[in-house]
Structure to design on (315 residues):
């Protein structure tokens, strides 16, 4: 009836065609509003639909308030997985997320490659080293005290009282204490440092540039310059002059470089006797050297040997 009254006033004096158009438009609006208010009876009932809410439930249904209360009652990340803060070794049952995982604490994009030597170490060598060096310690065994490596003063003089301990016998510096190998400290390759000493660079700096180019080709990292530390008059060496370069590679780059040495360079060296067992500092570090002729056996140097000046043979 409201629609009829609304149409009675504006239709006075209008033509019949315009009145019919307004009547049909208003009837359509009325039909659409009636359909919106009425339930959708033409659709079949589904078991997945939620039951209708009562008037009391409509007043108390406030999901945003429930979410706000839950935020203070239970932390949002309480039931989420949290990576351990400490890396307890490659064989520990609880492992942190890999660095390539976006949710990891030490997220780094990558790795984009997995060196074969590193894969062999993680799958075979690490467990073999732990098995070979295993020492069974029964539960309840008291821990060994750290050995006394510094010498004490005797009481032969009153001046020895309250004096600090003396240096170790036979060496001015204490060597590192070797710890028992377990799943937390299995030996692995941490880094590889390549250093080149070029005495000819004291007279001609071009020799040093060639050495830097060679190390850059081998590692892909720009080497840093090194200076001499002391004066040697007979060799015409003065302290503070540039006479070498060095570069350090870590991670997958270190494994890739060692892989090239073992599989490509060492087999090509004529009468190669291996790495001496007495080399290094007896604290886990090893050292060996390459002659200029052996350095050319690396694939990065061999294919581009024409780009290096002839002075590379003297560096």
């Amino acid at each position: 009836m409201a629609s009829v009254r609304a149409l009675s006033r504006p239709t006075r004096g209008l033509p019949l065609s315009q009145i019919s158009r307004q009547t049909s438009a208003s009837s359509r609006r009325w039909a659409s509003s009636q359909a919106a208010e009425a339930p959708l009876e033409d659709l079949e009932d589904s078991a997945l639909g939620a039951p209708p809410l009562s008037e009391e439930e409509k007043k108390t249904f406030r999901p945003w308030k429930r979410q706000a209360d839950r935020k203070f009652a239970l932390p949002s990340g309480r039931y989420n997985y949290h990576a351990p803060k400490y890396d307890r070794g490659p064989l520990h049952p609880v492992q942190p997320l890999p660095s390539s995982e976006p949710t990891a604490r030490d997220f780094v994009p990558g790795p984009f490659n997995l060196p074969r030597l590193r894969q062999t170490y993680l799958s075979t060598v690490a467990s073999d080293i732990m098995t070979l060096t295993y020492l069974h310690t029964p539960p309840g065994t008291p821990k060994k005290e750290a050995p006394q490596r510094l010498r004490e003063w005797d009481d032969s003089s009153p001046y020895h009282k309250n004096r600090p301990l003396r240096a170790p016998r036979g060496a001015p510096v204490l060597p590192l204490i070797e710890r028992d190998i377990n799943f937390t400290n299995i030996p692995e390759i941490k880094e590889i440092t390549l250093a080149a000493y070029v005495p000819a660079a004291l007279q001609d700096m071009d020799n040093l540039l060639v050495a830097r180019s060679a190390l850059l080709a081998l590692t892909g990292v720009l080497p840093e310059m090194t200076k001499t530390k002391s004066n040697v008059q007979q060799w015409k060496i003065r302290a503070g002059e540039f006479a070498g370069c060095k570069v350090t590679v870590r991670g997958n780059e270190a494994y890739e470089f060692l892989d090239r040495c073992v599989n490509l360079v060492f087999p090509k060296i004529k009468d190669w006797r291996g790495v001496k067992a007495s080399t290094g500092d007896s604290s886990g570090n090893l050292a060996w050297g390459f002659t200029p002729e052996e350095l050319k056996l690396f694939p990065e140097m061999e294919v581009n040997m024409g780009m290096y000046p002839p002075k590379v043979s003297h560096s």
Summary: The longest strand covers residues 242-250. Strands lie at 191-197, 224-227, 242-250. The first helix runs from residue 2 to 8. The two ends are 107 Å apart (CA to CA).
